[in-house]
Structures are given as C-alpha cells and as structure tokens.
Amino acid sequence: MIKRHISPVLLKLAGYFPVVTVLGPRQSGKTTLVKSVFPDHTYLNMEDADTRALALQDYKAFFKTYPGPLILDEIQRAPGILSAIQVLVDDKREAGKYILTGSHQPLLREGITQSLAGRTAVMQLFPLSLAELSDAGIVLDRDEYLVRGFLPAIYAHGIPPNDLYRSYYSTYVERDVRQIFNIEKQGAFELFLKLLAGRVGQLVNLNNMAGETGVSQPTLASWLSVLEASFIVFRLQPYFANFGKRQTKTPKLYFSEPGLASWLLGISTPEQAARDPLFGGLFENMVVIEALKARLNAGEMPELYYYRSKDGLEIDLIQQGETHTAH
Residue 210: how many CA atoms within 13 Å on its side-chain side? Predict the structure, then answer.
C-alpha cells in the first residue's frame, strides 16, 4: 500500500475533534486511508442498503448496535444521521469517535454545515501525488503520468487506464450527477465534459459552450457546480490583492484527475499525449493539481490562485501563505 502524506494530519485532527470528515473524489483512496490510520474503528459502508436503512429508519438502534468508535464510509448516502451524531458528540465528547468519508454532494455539505459545525474537522483527499508515488519507488515519464493519472487502483491493481476511466466515468461521474439532476440530454452532458477537458487551464466560458451543446447557460452552470462539488473538476480563482482593478475575474478550470481529462479527449498513449495540441493545458492541469495536493496533504487551505490582467500579463499559479507539514 502506498503511504499517504496526509495520514499524520488525519491522526492529529482525530486527537482534537470528535468527528473527522474526509472528503474527496471517488476512488481517491479515502476508505483505504481511514482504515489504515484507524484499524481499531468499526467500519460501516453507507452504500450497503441494509446498513443505510437501519441508520435512517432507527438511528438509536443503529448507534446502540454500533457504539463506536466508527468509520462511516460514503456518508453522503445517509446525510440524515449527521444530526444524530451531533447529539451523541454533544452528550459525550470523545476525540476521534467518528471518522466520516464522502464525495461531498450538496446535501452532505449542508448537513456538515448545519449539524457538525464546530464538531468536525474537514479534510480533502485527492488521488495519489507525484511525491507519494516517488516515495513508493514509482517514477514514470511525464507523458505517461498524463495518461495513467493518479487513481490508486491504477497502481494497486494494474488496471489499464482506458478500462479504469471508462468504468470510472459510467459508474461515478454519470451516477453522481444523475442523483442530483434528471439529465434528459445524456449526449449533451457527455459533450459538455469533453468540452471542459479540452479547455483545461483556460477561463470558463459557459456561453460559448451553451451554443456548442445546445443546452442553456444556466443548466451548464448547474452541471458544473455539481461536478465541482463532487470533486470532478477544480476551479482556480483569480488573485485580487494589490494588483489594481484591471484583472480577469473568471476562474480557470482543471480536472481533479488528469488521467480522466486525457481519457475524455481520447488520449490513450504517452505518444498521443506528447503530440496532442492540448498537451500544454493537460500538463498545466497536472502541475496545478499537484500544487493543490501538496497543500491539502500538509493540512493547509489551498490558497492557490492565478493572475491575468486585461493587458495580457499572466501568472499561471500563485500560492499564498506558507506550507507546514504536520508531525
């Protein structure tokens, strides 16, 4: 198992807070992480229909059956029990009693904000970083990283990237969006994702994409919000401080998993990646997401921005603040 750099941060926070919530993209390694850091916690997966039904229908019986400490995986499938956890931790505050994981659907965000404010530390885990792979003795060529990506299953099970990302798209990306929206134009949604992949590192212009997809700009904005809330895409915000008023205010878009962006563009080999006209954007995508992982794995807020003036001055990535690794 590849050691995750965020592990010491997770352990530290569990020593202070009764609840620690680990959010992040599907298949980024959240379950493996929390199981390895908390081997003595009882593990329950809310994707299991029987477990979920008991938790939602009779939470008192659920927590009597499973008194804890608990790992509650995929908690977005049962956000209704967050209020019960609030009552339990307020009655008896025990550090690290509940470890939650989720892919950060809107209902989960709302539940954490309303029920667990001040009671939970919130962390974000992204797929493997270059540093974590290097520590595990895995060093690849630049273009191979762009194709293989960083999902742990690529390296743990040797799944071919094309097969993994095809399954990842149909199993997680489409399903997570369908759980929130009744998407009638499935072809338009797939085209929208491919258009986003073709625009990594660029400013988000939904008006242009509305014309290309035949879907209204407000609908595309809703789709994009869900993709961001589910950690499929990441929007890098512009930097404002001390640069005057003549700045671009539109965010730039990146995919949280560079391998998924390459797959959406039909890039399946390192040779294709090197020759593709979009190579520059894909490489920039990887660099920006690596900077994001480094911040999050150190327990820091992202504080990453870009700067582009109306006169053409551009800085691709600005990091504000200092990084301190937890010990």
Answer: 10
